[in-house]
């Protein structure tokens, strides 16, 4: 299994438009953050988690030209607005793309991208997708065995995923006790959101995410969905053992990992 961090930024991306701060002005490429997304690859299957506003640029940079499915975590703009660029995969494969999303958000999603789901009179090519209900128990897509969990994120919910000994969770405030119980001791490597060092009503922040890794027994924890007050070089050096910060284009090879 190979993981690519397609985007490691919070909803604004970094640099933030017009911001004169040191991180936004930094020349360190690891401080250039597109919106949060990852690709998970195994054999000939590739799963895209979310379609960020920069999805097209992200998959071009990662050399991804075919996908098996999209798993949506939730419907916030920073995780969905690249949806239209799924057309690129259809033009190549002529196969509608399976998009898994928690059923409670289907009506909102269909409304947001109405032109893809009903005849609006639009004359151009629209995304060809199969919107599918995210199972809330283990399911398979191609070679992947996926264990989804539902996590609170402010007034909405988000979906986290475990693929064997790797897990990805973004945009959650906390992990409910039953989810910690379900995943504990099973995860070698985990990518999870952390935003910054301050506080946030709807998000786990970096110290909380570090504590979550500890509770789950994660051996390698990688913190993503980062804001512009996180400087990669400075703050990555301050992370405790077994924890690091994500950056765009980072790859993680889990081929030889033993859980
Ligand atoms: Zn987000
Ligand atoms: Zn800034
Ligand atoms: Zn969100």
Which key terms come to mind for this protein?
Metallo-beta-lactamase, Chain A; alpha/beta; 259 residues; single chain; binds zinc ion; seven-stranded mixed sheet
Description:
With 259 residues, the protein is of the alpha/beta class. The protein has a single domain (2-136, 145-251), classed as Ribonuclease Z/Hydroxyacylglutathione hydrolase-like (Metallo-beta-lactamase, Chain A), CATH 3.60.15. The protein has nine helices and 14 strands. The strands form two sheets. A seven-stranded mixed beta sheet has the order 6-5-4-3-2-1-14, with helices on one face. The chain has a seven-stranded mixed beta sheet with strand order 7-8-9-10-11-12-13. The longest helix has 11 residues, at 206-216. The structure holds zinc ion (ZN) (3 copies). One zinc ion (ZN) is lined by residues 16, 19, 21, 23-24, 228.
